[in-house]
Amino acid sequence: MNPNVHQLAGWLRESKVISVMTGAGVSTESGIPDFRSSRGLWTEDFSRTEVMSRSYYEKNPELFWKYFKEIFQTKLSMQHQPNKGHLFLKDLELAGKEVHVFTQNVDGLHQKAGSRSVYNMHGSIQTATCPKCAAAYDLTSIHEEDVPRCNARLESGSRCGSILKPDVVLFGDMVQHIEDIYHTVDRSDLLLVMGTSLEVYPVNQIPKDFRFRGNKRMVFINREPTMMDNLFDLVIHESIGEIARQLSVKLEL
Hints:
With 253 residues, the protein is an alpha/beta fold. Helices cover 34% and strands 17% of the residues. The strands form 2 sheets. The chain has a 6-stranded parallel beta sheet, with helices on both faces. A hairpin with a 6-residue loop joins strand 4 and strand 5 (136-138). Helix 1 packs across helix 11 and helix 6 (84-94) packs parallel to helix 11 (240-251). The two termini are 17 Å apart.
């Protein structure tokens, strides 16, 4: 057993309110690729940054949807299930902890695992919205057409027909729930960061800010080292699923 797990288990026992930040590394063990890891898909074609932008959607909405469905095809498949990392956070709640999950992931697996307080900082791939009339659509509707369009009826009786926008935060959009995470972490006993390279602004500024604002306990679990490891009180470079399994045993979850 990793010796740092003993320390983390002790801190989790002592904590009543826990804020958790999760990134793509939490979902890789569910079969979802980590686009920003050293072996991730984003390293294969940097033009994806351009096509997954707000400006590209507005200029080329039909092509945008072609690329969007290609890039996120595994997430759109609806076949993926929560793994031990997701379930561990849910089990902490069941054990009486107040757990707030702030995730950069768009796959909805924290909600699927049963976590009750989940903030989708980069939005959700599970839904889309009409930019003209604000009608909302689920994932099944998104799959009905290659380029999903709004079926809502306007006052005139005609079909809206506007091309939908997925409810994900595109490049050029504002990250969501930044104020919420600062408010929540301020009253938390522990900040637990899991499965993120901490490369994306402004989310990567949060550990920096809290490191220099007080004596908040901060723990980082990630397979690969990052430039921000030194900010944390405890760093574990190992599979999140394995650490979750060890913690579950130690805490008898």
